[in-house]
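User: Hello, can you help with two protein structures?

Assistant: Certainly.
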Amino acid sequence: MDPVSPALREAARRALSLPAPALLAECEVSVFIGGGPGGQHRNKTESAVRLVHLPTGITVTATERRSQLRNRDAALERLRERLAPLAVRPKPRRPTRPGRGAVERRIADKKKHGQRKASRRGME
């Protein structure tokens, strides 16, 4: 059974079709101080961005750049990457049985193999 609910799948599909400003409007945007290399500019400014997509509950962050604008664009790109697998509906699997020709070939191969082994036994 598919673990993703149809409503979640539809929300992801709809969100992927939106342009960046509209997708950003569906998200809760929070900015914070991102640590790491980057010097004083990075340590004193709120340049890291966290996006929470409210319809699906997916959270992504971007902290690698010193610019809040560039981090927001990177976070939007990551959000689209996380939404893409949710939007795909897997094809239902149907049980199949081997055809008559395949069964006959398998039986013929087994007989051939058994005859080969039987011929080895007679050589002792």
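That covers the first. Now for the second protein you mentioned:
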Amino acid sequence: MTERVPSITVLVPGLLRDCCAGRPEVDLHATNMRELLLDMERNYPRLHRNICDETGAVRRHVNLFVNTHNMRDCEGMETPLAPGDTVTVLPAVSGG
């Protein structure tokens, strides 16, 4: 019997909800951030394009938090994910 890849909840900010049929959250399957983004690209390509650049790297102005930890402060794309984890997409806010 194969082990199931855990379901991870991704919280989508209002600005990007039109990329996933208006949903405030989506469930993806992954054991690390790299797999999560690949699953996102397969299931929500518009959302993925807003989060990642053409090389697959997370855009500089987008932060991804695994629970309360910025993935950039953890293991980056190799940051492990476990069942029940929540990933929050947080685009940078700027203005004058």
